[in-house]
Amino acid sequence: MFNFDWLTASIGFLFGACLGSFANVIIYRWPQGLSLLGRSYCYNCKNTVAWYHNIPIFSYFWLRGRCARCKAPFSIRYPLVEFLMGALFFAVIAYYGVSWLTLEYLVLVFGLVTASFIDLDHMILPDEITLGGLALALIGAALNPEREFLDALWGCLFGGGILWLVAYVYYAFTGREGLGGGDIKLLAWLGALLGWKAIPFIILSSSIVGSVVGLLASRKTEDGLRTMIPFGPFLAMGALLYILGLRSVGVWYVQLFFPDI
Questions:
Q1: Residue 222: per-residue pLDDT
Q2: Do the beta carbons of residue 74 and residue 60 sit within 8 Å?
Q3: Which one, of 243, 246, 203, 196, lies nearest residue 89 by Cα?
């Protein structure tokens, strides 16, 4: 499926970049219990950021990555999240065109990017994002003629259930938690939106990349192979790969073992 429209996709990029700016607010404030309301401010001097200094991506480089008042440096993550969100919105709209399914995928992208950076910082996946996304996915399946509710329900149960089983077996053999409850809820959300056939591909791709990153990280810490890394970003990566061109690979992988499905 490919429905490319430069104008619509470009508008999607701008809208995504703006939502990326809001995602930065959530990523920083939510885990600390700070209000999401109110204008952006410099966390060093506490001065409010002027609106013309808060333009996604552009303002960071215009100000050379520093506060206009106190000159304290801003993290490069701010324009990175804004650009990533914009680029993913562009890709989804370019690939799927304009439809209800596209809207659901854009909601997914926003949730995945936001939750991934929170997971990287704090090793948590907020229920408000994972369970909220799960609820929206089930509601969408009931309302969206492009999807089937039963498939969404099976996807939810299969996604959440298989990861819960993996976590339980790992804990039974090692006595340590290898996967958090947030990862289970996240995969349940992905299953509810993408269907159960997406789950094997997401788990396989995220496990391969996560294992490589984990091995590299273990060489740089004293904990070695016991080094804990968040798994949520890798699940998010697998889901994004699936919807942006590798869906056929995921279906092929399922049919390889279940040819009659």
A1: 59
A2: yes
A3: 243
Does the global pTM surpass 0.70? Answer: yes
Instruction: List the chain domain ranges.
Output: 1-98, 99-261
Q: Has residue 249 got a pLDDT over 80?
A: no
Torsion of CA 120, 124, 126, 130, to 10 degrees: 80
Contact 129, 41 (CB under 8 A): no
Rounded Cα distance, 89 and 100, in Å: 14
**110: Cα within 13 Å, side-chain hemisphere:** 23
Nearest CA among 255, 225, 132 for reference residue 186: 132
| Tokens (6 digits) for 36 | 């999401």
Q: Spell out a b/e string for 139-168, using b for 16 or more CB atoms within 10 Å of the CB, else e.
A: ebbeebeebeeebbbbbbebbbebbbebbe
Query: Any idea which residue has 């907020």 for tokens?
Result: 126
**Burial (0-12, 13-18, 19+ Cβ within 10 Å), 1:** exposed
Residues 23, 211, 196, 141, Cα dihedral to 10°:
0
Q: What is the pLDDT of residue 214?
A: 72
